[in-house]
Specification:
Order of helices and strands: EHEHEHEHEHHHHHHHH
Strand content: 5-15%
Number of strands: 5
Number of domains: 3
Strand order of the largest sheet: 2-1-3-4-5
Largest sheet: 5 strands, parallel
CATH architecture of the largest domain: 3-Layer(aba) Sandwich
């Protein structure tokens, strides 16, 4: 039975969540707490597969809590459930959360999100693999691309297409931009799959904040023990793997996230 921890400083919200998920109590062991400190104590007492937290809470806010969860319990999936959409809050949450949901959230959306996260955890059944992947807050960006992007966003006249062209050269930046554009913080009614559309929607100011103000895109300092051209090779291999993954024939009901792990079974694809 999967164990789910809900964290929100409003008891009315927690009561509503209990009612929403009442029919799931036979398949999920759910616990509800009102602050970050109590949530960490609960995690110390027993492992949780998923932690779902509000963002704005007195004392320890949601981003701080999920940061602690990431460091101390990296195999636990982290989901934000919030009614606020400030850019600063979104970029902080992007560093520590795997999924974003907005209040009010339908029962179906909440159940589907938890189910998909749990499905991925079952696929990543190895405890060590889950720990390593769960501890990753962001992928490293190549320093040359980071420098080009930082220079481009300084000029307010730089075309959006040019910004998108720079971003698409780096899978770490691409993943982060698409993640934020599709997060519940921005409340889009449709899924954004085009990088150009994501950059256009977020706008120059947002991209500038991501690159220059927050720690979302850090300049990557290569490990001297690894040859410099090795990073380019890893990037190329990963991009080829992703291109194959999205073309895999899968059952329409299979969560999109799952197909990316199936590519590991294809002979000849670098792991």
């Amino acid at each position: 039975m999967k164990r789910i921890l809900f964290v929100d400083d409003e008891n009315k919200i927690l009561d509503a969540l209990r009612r929403m998920l009442y029919t799931d109590k036979k398949r999920w062991d759910m616990e509800f707490v009102t602050n970050g400190e109590t949530a960490l104590e609960a995690c110390e007492r027993g492992h949780f597969d998923v932690v779902i937290s509000d963002m704005r809470m007195p004392g320890m806010d949601g981003a701080t809590l999920l940061g602690h969860i990431q460091d101390r319990f990296p195999s636990t999936a982290r989901i934000v459930l919030s009614g606020y959409s400030e850019l600063e809050m979104a970029t902080r949450a992007a560093q520590v959360a795997h999924r974003f949901l907005t209040k009010p959230c339908t029962t179906s959306d909440l159940q589907t999100t938890i189910e998909r996260v749990c499905t991925l955890q079952d696929i990543l059944s190895g405890v060590e693999m889950r720990r390593v992947i769960g501890s990753v807050g962001e992928l490293p960006s190549l320093s040359s691309i980071y420098a080009s992007l930082a220079q481009a966003v300084k000029n307010p006249e730089t075309p959006i297409k040019e910004i998108a062209a720079i971003v698409e050269q780096d899978m770490a930046m691409t993943a982060k931009v698409l993640q934020l554009a599709n997060s519940a913080f921005f409340g889009l009614a449709r899924t954004v799959t085009s990088l150009s559309a994501a950059v256009s929607f977020l706008g120059m100011d947002t991209i500038k904040n991501l690159v220059l103000i927050t720690e979302t895109f850090k300049a990557f300092v290569p490990d001297k023990r690894i040859p410099g051209d090795e990073y380019e090779s890893l990037q190329t291999n990963a991009q080829r793997t992703a291109n194959i993954a999205v073309k895999l024939p899968v059952d329409p009901g299979t969560p999109r996230d799952v197909r990316y792990w199936a590519v590991a079974e294809i002979p000849g694809v670098p792991s």
